[in-house]
Amino acid sequence: MARKNKNTTQKRKELRERETQFIKELETRIQEYDPSLHVKDQLFDDLPISPNTLRGLKEAAFLKMTDIQKKSIPISLKNNDILASAKTGSGKTLAFLIPVLEKLYREKWTEFDGLGALIISPTRELAMQIYEVLVKIGKYHSFSAGLVIGGKDVKFELERMSRINILVGTPGRILQHMDQAVGLNVLNLQMLVLDEADRCLDMGFQKTLDAIVSNLPPSRQTLLFSATISQSISNLARLSLADYKIVGDDNEQQQQLKTTNSTPDSLQQYYIEVDLPQKLNILFSFIKSHLKSKMIVFLSSSKQVHFVYETFRKLQPGISLMNLHGRQKQTARTETLDKFSRAQQVVLFATDVVARGIDFPAVDWVVQVDCPEDVDTYIHRAGRCARNGKNGKSLIMLTSQEEPGFLSRLKSKNIVPSKLNIKQSKKKSIQPQLQSLLFKDPELKYLGQKAFISYVRSIFIQKDKEVFKFDELPTEDFAQSLGLPGAPKIKIKGMKTIQKAKELKNTSRQLLLLGKADANGEIVKDLAEKETKTKYDKMFNRKNQSVLSEHYLNITKSSADHDEDEDFMTVKRHDHELKEQDLPALLVPTSKRAMKRALSKKASLSTKGNASKLKFDDDGTAHPIYELIGEEDFHKEGDVKTQVNNFINKESELMAKADVDDKRTVKEKRKEKKRKRLEALRKEMETEMASEDEDANVYIAGTGNLSDDMQEDDDHSSDDEEAVRKKARYDNSSDVSDNDNDKVGENDNNIIEYEEPETLEELESLTSNLIKH
Fold first, then answer.
1. Three-state SS for 624?
2. What are φ and ψ of residue 412, in 5° steps?
3. Which residue, 91, 254, 330, 506, could crosslink 66 as a Cys pair with Cβ 3.0–4.6 Å?
4. Which SMART domains does this one have (predicted)?
5. Which element (helix H / strand E) includes 615?
6. pLDDT at residue 741 above 50?
7. How far is Cα 300 from Cα 381, in angstroms, rounded to an integer?
8. Distance, CA of 141 to CA of 597 (rounded, Å)
């Protein structure tokens, strides 16, 4: 055993020495690698990376490198910070995942070294995609990886946080774990990656990212990747990058952070001019004419996505429909992503939550129903198709107000879409069907109103007023196109309120609660939350649950102008408490006595008389129980003595009749009681007779002793005689009088026979006679 252990230890030392020597040679190759000498080489085999990474890339079918990968990976392998930008679908995910794996491999990272790499993504879907690619290409490494996003179990993640080497997640959840997870140690962090960094800033994660970066060690390597580079990204780069290099297209404008972004060459771009009320008609007609395509339809808000999805689902265009937006639960979003990726002919209605970084396979069309807020958003939306050199088509609908301004901004980025004309023969109007659906279904009407409000608000908050002209919106026609009878009223909030709501939307709920903690560390909750004790209280305290909300009730309830009967038992007003200064001067009590009389129930009733009970006749007219008649009507019926005598006689007759009824009732009760007693006696007698019959059927064979057997026979004979006597008494009994005149006969054994009783009276007489005998 000692020799085997010694040999095993020796082999392990040799393996470690070989690995150390290979890592040194690998680092030498990295420093000597010159991308300019490998311009024609497009294979991952030419890169100075480990065999484990190469094996994972080959099994995941990643063989050739893209432009951004050829330019950024060699620089990242040399431990330089990078600010990289490239077209959508150009392979930015592998451009930072390969350096992450190689960095930890060369550092000989183990599970005991803690967190080695942190990858931050703006959306949950993109974070999930990054994690899936990381698991595929890193399957032959020994690193542990974790995914932390909103909508998952926080406790489950906290328990495993100390054993994660590569962490992928969204900004809010990562910062939450930094504040709560005891085992999360970022002091040894080797690499920080921000994917779609510009989107992180646009979604209001600026403060969150600053808080995350402030907790990280300054000696790390940082990689910033985005399809577009703006001034906000350059500000973030100055905070988090050190001696960074810009990677992207080779032109002077990009080196000055004024990049000219363009879409892939394989993407065919079109636009059509459509009036706002005709957008849904054109969209439905377009879907009907492309039933064998896979397309993504972008809308500006989640409420619009929900409304269009529900209405088109009822109209049944002939193709599978899906919806995806940020207000869905994480399980539903994940399931929708998986189904859409595997489907071939489907339409996905979505918001900008999937506009960046998500790699959907084989998307034929990207339709932008609502104009994006800027050119960068247009580029990211259109980039969901024509990825990795494949063909794809993009269509954007522009109104006459949006067309000139937005086309000029696209032209400044070298994007010139072609104009399409709509064939009138294929154009269909769905406005009558929408009106019918909303009339029959109040829930759809509620969704339509919300969709209308969200679109108008989205136009109001746009910064580019040359493109989005709020004052020129045809609100009434747009409302009718959605199937609504009229345009709902809208309350427009200020820009500061909207910005604050946007920041709160992307902030972790746990962090908000921690921010409300007092000096002792206890979380201070609102009064309503303190009063809530059970889950049922919480359920009834919620608002906006599906359509059973205050908004829905305001929409569906009848107005006061229709019928007064509909307002029965309806609370019209809740604030009945009146203050003294609100009352007129004449109504205010002028003395203490008057105030006491006004506030006292007893004093107030003294002037109004005592309350009396009422009864209603057949016509529904109320009358007092003791109603007084007039004096003339009283004298018509006679004098007082006559009326008193008549009343006494009438009551006497009623009492006599009641007395007769009571006697009859008592007599019937006595008879019933007697009958029940005799019935119980008869059942008892039948039970005893049945038991005697069973004893008579027993056969005794004898004991073997003659004297004992003879004695037993005598005993049995006497018992049999007694049984016969009892049987005669019970079974053959009849009515017996006091003089025994009804007796039929008497035999030698003194057995008296009677006729069988037929009535209860006969049975009673027989019983009394038997008692005498």
1. strand
2. -65, -20
3. 91
4. DEXDc, DUF4217, HELICc
5. strand 614-616
6. no
7. 12
8. 90
The CA distances from residue 436 to 114, 314, 430, 562, 749, in Å, are 61, 11, 10, 22, 102
Answer yes or no: are the C-beta atoms of 321 and 349 closer than 8 Å: yes
At residue 347's C-alpha, the angle toward residues 393 and 437, to 5°, is 130
Residue 79: closest CA among 190, 171, 200: 190
Helices (H), 567-639: 592-599, 601-606, 631-636
3-state per-residue secondary structure call for 121-188: CCCHHHHHHHHHHHHHHCCCCCCCEEEECCCCCHHHHHHHHHHCCEEEECHHHHHHHHHHCCCCCCCC
> Can you tell me the distance from the alpha carbon of 368 to that of 465, in angstroms, rounded to the nearest whole number?
20
Residue 158 clears pLDDT 90, i.e. is over it: no
Residue 568 tokens, joined: 């029965």
Q: Are strands 614-616 and 418-419 parallel, antiparallel or unpaired?
A: unpaired
CB atoms within 10 A of CB 772: 8
The answer to whether 468 and 462 have CB atoms below 8 angstroms apart is yes
How many helices (H) and strands (E) in the chain?
30, 18
CA distances from residue 224 to 81, 119, 630 in whole angstroms, order as listed: 8, 10, 102
Please indicate whether residue 269 or residue 761 has the higher confidence score (pLDDT): 269
Phi/psi of residue 701, nearest 5 degrees: -85, -15
**How far is Cα 392 from Cα 571, in angstroms, rounded to an integer?**
59
The 8-class DSSP code of residue 773 comes to -
Q: What is the mean pLDDT of residues 723-743?
A: 43
What angle, rounded to 10 degrees, do the helices at 431-440 and 442-460 form?
Answer: 120
Q: How many CB atoms lie within 10 A of CB 690?
A: 9
Q: Which DSSP state fits 629? A: P
* pLDDT score recorded for residue 455: 94
When pLDDT is cut at 50, 70 and 90, the band that residue 497 belongs to is: low
If DSSP codes are grouped into helix, strand and coil, which group holds residue 664? Answer: helix
- What is the value of pTM for the model shown? 0.56
148-176 burial, b if ≥16 CB within 10 A, otherwise e?
A: bbbeeebeebbeebeebbbbbbbbbbbbb
Number of Cα atoms under 13 Å in the Cβ half of residue 230: 12
Query: How high is the pLDDT of residue 159?
Result: 82
- CA 93, CA 362: separation in Å to the nearest integer? 18
Position 499 scores a pLDDT of 63
CA distance 22 to 584: 97
Buried b (16+ CB within 10 A) or exposed e, 421-452: eeeeeeeeebeeebbebbeebeebbbbbbbbb
CB count within 10 Å of CB 53 equals 20
3-state secondary structure of 253: helix
Q: How far is CA 423 from CA 41, 282, 317, 417, 762, in A?
A: 48, 10, 18, 19, 108
Kindly list the structural domains of the chain, giving each domain's residue range(s) and its CATH number in brackets, ordered by start. 14-255 (3.40.50.300), 267-429 (3.40.50.300), 495-560 (no CATH), 704-772 (no CATH)
Model confidence pLDDT, tens digit, residues 530-547: 444 565 565 556 555 444
User: In this predicted model, what pLDDT tens digit does every residue of 563-586 receive, in sequence order?
Assistant: 444 444 555 555 555 455 544 544
- Eight-class DSSP state of 112: G
Question: What was the pLDDT predicted at 19?
Answer: 87
Please tell me the distance from the alpha carbon of residue 359 to that of residue 341, in angstroms, as a whole number: 9
